[in-house]
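Retry 2 of 3 after timeout on previous attempt. Resubmitting structure tokens to design endpoint.
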């Protein structure tokens, strides 16, 4: 079973964690969605470096800082 945990703080900060493995179509779907989201954020941060910074930490944790101009 794949377990996805989403924690949302009072400030709107969101942490998403996926752990585990399940049948191939479900696992592939979850992996594709999460990896695509990270890749999109990386591309967006290249277009707007003054507003968005994406760091990949330890291969498992993604740190996204959004600053408004």
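Retry 2 succeeded. Sequence:
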């Amino acid at each position: 079973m794949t377990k996805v945990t989403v924690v949302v703080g009072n400030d709107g900060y969101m942490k998403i964690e996926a752990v585990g493995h399940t049948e191939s179509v479900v696992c592939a779907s979850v992996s594709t969605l999460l990896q695509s989201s990270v890749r999109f954020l990386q591309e967006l941060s290249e277009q707007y470096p003054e507003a968005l910074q994406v760091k990949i930490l330890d291969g498992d944790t993604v740190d996204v800082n959004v600053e408004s101009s």
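Attempt log closed. The two ends are 42 Å apart (CA to CA).
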